[in-house]
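May I ask you for just one protein sequence along with its backbone structure tokens in two labelled lines?

_____
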Amino acid sequence: MAEFIVRTKKKQEMVDITERVADLVKQSRVSDGICLVYVPHATAAVAINENADPNVCEDILEALANLIPEGRWRHDRIDNNAAAHIKATLLGPSQAVPVRGGRLRLGTWQSVMLVELDGPRERSVIVEVR
């Protein structure tokens, strides 16, 4: 198991972590298997989607904002980030990616993304390759 830190810069953003995850897969020397990418945070998530056009990430964050507006949830009385918790729950804290020939088996346009929903913060990313 390996872990690395991502320092996010915005309240909500999607950060491409594909290269860092791919490096850990290579270091693992696992030829064929599975790579689990996990964030141990209640207001962050991991997603796989296109990153060639940065508008895709902006569209995803905008859609989430439209679906789950801020400032209307009971948990907001505590620390005003209930929407981030709900979004993170819907997206999920992890993704599993097949490994084939020592490489992540992602589609042509796919990237592994850390989804920050309550930043800026320092986020841990845990990667397990088997």
User: Anything to note?
Assistant: The mean pLDDT is 96. The first strand starts at residue 2 and ends at 7.
